[in-house]
TrEMBL record:
SUPFAM superfamilies hit by this protein: NAD(P)-binding Rossmann-fold domains
One Pfam family from the record: adh_short_C2
Protein name: Predicted protein
InterPro entries: NAD(P)-bd_dom_sf, Sc_DH/Rdtase_CS, SDR_fam, Sec_Metab_Biosynth_SDR
Lineage: Eukaryota, Fungi, Dikarya, Ascomycota, Pezizomycotina
Protein origin, superkingdom: Eukaryota
Keywords: NADP, Oxidoreductase
């Protein structure tokens, strides 16, 4: 193969484009879901459906997204409030989306919950609630949306499923007084679910990948940040000396859902500045102080 052929890339300017794609984002009204929805819109999606339990929050998020300056003509964010923790909620979400389209190119299963409490008093209902939303609801949502994802999927342009896991699913999460045992277990479980679904759905023209964020300032993370010594302390302990930013999520989700990521399947991408790998060093430092 000649160097000239090797240097040729098919239509590189469109490699990271989502022009004309249709996306559904659960947990999309705030935090990481809203970061991702903004990226999908600005990368060229024609429709982005925003779902969360609260209708007012969905409406407000869509208002903000539709006012973004870098949108394709006619691009729109559409509120579809639903509680995806229940099968009735998942079916409601699907029915609302089908009122606007019979095909979906991107499903971002991002809705999730956490619970922090000491091991000895950690309640059964809290563990169950977290596992139901973070694992079972993800499976149910992907299963119900699979026919819409297959509609326009092809060998050259597969549809995409993204799952929000966490670095807590790759390593050890928060222990102690605010232990997040169910959350950590659920995020490890949903990672493995994603690997299984990648093999199940790949032949149908659907890739399944997971993102594993570290600390990003958000409503869910802010309480834990405060209990861990504050955002500044956590940022200084990170190898990159900062917390996550919206652009860090945006770059990862656009890569995985655009043509650039069409041959990535069954993978998990940590977005944490390398903090996961520095925890051993931090533990040694803490033990040396004892």
């Amino acid at each position: 193969m000649s160097a000239q052929i090797e240097a040729t890339l098919h239509d590189f300017p469109s490699l990271f484009s989502l022009k004309g794609k249709i996306a559904v984002v659960t947990g999309g009204s705030r935090g990481l879901g809203l970061h991702a929805a903004s990226a999908f819109m600005q990368a060229g999606c024609s429709k982005v459906f925003i779902s969360s339990r609260k209708a007012a929050a969905c409406e407000e998020a869509c208002k903000v997204l539709n006012a973004l300056p870098n949108l394709s003509p006619g691009a729109t964010a559409i509120p579809v409030p639903a509680d995806s923790a229940t099968m009735d909620g998942v079916r409601s979400l699907l029915a609302q989306v089908k009122q606007h389209t019979d095909a979906v190119d991107i499903l971002f299963a991002n809705a999730g919950a956490t619970w922090g409490e000491a091991f000895d008093t950690h309640p059964d209902q809290a563990f169950a609630k977290v596992m139901d939303l973070n694992v079972k609801a993800v499976f149910n949502t992907i299963r119900e949306f699979a026919p819409l994802l297959q509609k326009r999927a092809s060998l050259e342009d597969p549809s995409r499923v993204l799952i929000t896991s966490s670095v807590a699913g790759l390593g050890v999460g928060t222990l102690g007084k605010q232990g997040t045992y169910g959350y950590s277990a659920s995020k490890a479980a949903v990672l493995h679910l994603g690997r299984n679904l990648a093999l199940e759905l790949g032949p149908r023209g659907i890739t399944v990948n997971s993102i594993c964020p570290g600390f990003f300032p958000s409503k869910m993370a802010n309480g834990l940040l405060a209990m861990s010594g504050g955002a500044d302390k956590i940022a200084k302990a990170n190898p990159m000396r900062r917390l996550g930013r919206p652009e860090d999520i945006a770059g990862a989700v656009v890569y995985l859902t655009s043509r650039a990521g069409s041959h990535v399947n069954g993978e998990a991408i940590a977005i944490d500045g390398g903090a996961l790998w520095s925890r051993g060093e931090m533990l040694v430092e803490e033990q040396s102080k004892l």
